[in-house]
Design goal:
11 helices; alpha+beta; single chain; 5-stranded mixed sheet
Length: 480
């Protein structure tokens, strides 16, 4: 059922109910006003005939029959559409003219206080006024009566008109509300037609909406646009994840082919020559271990690179960089006890980041310095420093190795760039560059103050208000 039809039906049902409820209130107010008017007329007529009633009562007390008859005639003439009854103190009815109830139903009434009496199924509005006679006579009571049916007829007339208005208002209100709702729902139908033509798989189709100045329609359009944008974003992330998976498989198959073939050759040598001497056998096993380590390192690096391409902003949190560097240095000292690693660090250095990614940065810089940082004395010296530098965290890793030529310092961040004799996968510095880019920082290779070796200098923002990651990240596919 259309929205306009629903609104019309609801209006057609509600309008007569509201009219009837308003009518009930109106009938109560009209009835009260009519009763007040009827009581007012009773008091006015009572004041007008009170003198004549007093004269009749005094003439009756003094025995002046002619005067009594004359005043009775005046009272009868004053009755008109009201009933008048004059009762002496002893209960004698001196005057009784006009429509009025039976005397048996008259209650004891307070002076000048109208009340309703009923007789023979008819209701009357009655007003009693005391009339003084000649002393020491106690006087009498003047009653005035007005039929309540006069007020009831008028109230009934108002009630009938209200019912008629309710019956007429139902279809008219339904029709009017249908026309108004039909016009009001026009922007909503336009939005429906536009959304029905959208194809989630076709990025060329987008929801175009011009403000209608109808709050609900504009808000609904905004919500739909937000949903479609999120859908597009998730679709892009899904496509990116699929591309990353394909790139992982392609890179793994390409880079692991050489160590696997080398391992196969060494295994064939061991299988075909069981009589190899101890030295040759040890050399083959050493090659196997080296190729296995290279294969495992490549897989781990590719996995880390894929994780960096797919990490979301909600994975970022508060990280103490100083604490993270201290833990990485402690692990490096345990794994390379022959190396000399010195650390200068602040007590605490908090920033917003992805902790596994930052640990990848520190570990790879340390491994790179330990592998290539052997000095002239044959020992490996690595110096690590982490401190605050304005609104940035500064991480510096120095070694005393042969260094990297200036022309090659940018190229080493590309995928699978290995130096001569390097046992690594060629992805360590690529992982560093990827994570630094994710954290909106910078990494630069240079020379330490001593002039020998390599200095890796990383700068990271200390406390960004929020993390916004670029949607397209393809380090695993095309490198730095």
């Amino acid at each position: 059922m259309r929205l306009a039809t629903r609104i019309a039906l609801v209006t057609a049902a509600i309008v007569p109910v509201l009219v009837l409820l308003a009518g009930l209130l109106l009938i109560g107010l009209v009835g009260r006003d009519l009763h007040a008017g009827q009581d007012g007329r009773l008091r006015e007529r009572s004041a007008a005939v009170l003198v004549s009633a007093r004269t009749v009562l005094r003439a009756a007390d003094t025995g002046r029959a002619r005067q009594e008859a004359t005043q009775q005639h005046h009272l009868s003439a004053a009755a008109l559409d009201m009933g008048i009854r004059l009762i002496a103190a002893d209960g004698t009815v001196l005057v009784q003219e006009g429509p009025q109830p039976d005397s048996s139903v008259l209650p004891h009434a307070a002076p000048d206080v109208p009340l309703t009496v009923r007789s023979g199924g008819t209701a009357w509005r009655a007003l009693a006024q005391p009339v003084t006679g000649l002393a020491p006579q106690p006087g009498g009571t003047l009653w005035l009566f007005s039929p309540a049916s006069v007020v009831n007829d008028e109230v009934g007339s108002v009630r009938g008109r209200i019912v008629l208005v309710a019956l007429v208002a139902a279809p008219l209100g339904g029709l009017f509300s249908y026309l108004v709702a039909e016009r009001a729902a026009r922007p909503l139908r336009t939005l429906q037609r536009r959304t029905s033509g959208l194809d989630p798989d076709d990025p060329a189709t987008r929801l175009s909406h011009r403000p209608t100045h109808i709050t609900e329609v504009d808000e609904l359009a905004g919500t739909l646009q937000s949903v479609l944008e999120r859908y597009d974003e998730q679709a892009a992330r899904t496509a990116e994840a699929l591309d990353t998976a394909r790139a992982f498989a392609a890179s793994a198959s390409h880079e692991l082919r050489t160590p696997l073939m080398s391992m196969r050759t060494n295994l064939d040598i061991l299988a075909d020559h069981p009589d190899l001497g101890p030295l040759e056998r040890a050399e083959v096993l050493e090659d196997l271990h080296a190729e296995h380590a290279r294969l495992l390192g490549t897989l781990v690096a590719l996995r880390s690179l894929a994780q960096g391409d797919l990490v979301e902003a909600d994975a970022f949190g508060t990280v103490d960089l100083a604490e993270l560097v201290e833990a990485a240095v402690a692990d490096a000292r345990r794994l390379q006890p022959q190396a000399v690693i010195t650390l200068r660090s602040e007590s605490s250095l908090r920033l917003r980041g992805w902790e596994p990614g930052l640990r990848i940065v520190i570990d790879n810089l340390l491994v790179n310095a330990l592998v290539h940082g052997q000095g002239p004395d044959g020992r490996t010296h690595v110096q690590v420093e982490v401190r605050a530098d304005g609104e940035q965290a500064l991480l510096t890793v120095d070694d005393t190795g042969p260094g990297i030529p200036a022309a090659q310092r940018e190229a080493v961040f590309a995928r699978f760039q290995r130096g001569p004799g390097s046992p690594g996968s060629g992805l360590g510095l690529t992982l560093v560059a990827q994570q630094i880019a994710l954290h909106r920082g910078t990494v630069r290779l240079g020379e330490p103050p001593s002039g020998r070796g390599t200095r890796a200098q990383v700068r990271l923002p200390l406390a960004p208000a929020s993390v916004t990651l670029q949607l397209r990240r393809d380090w695993l596919r095309v490198g730095a």
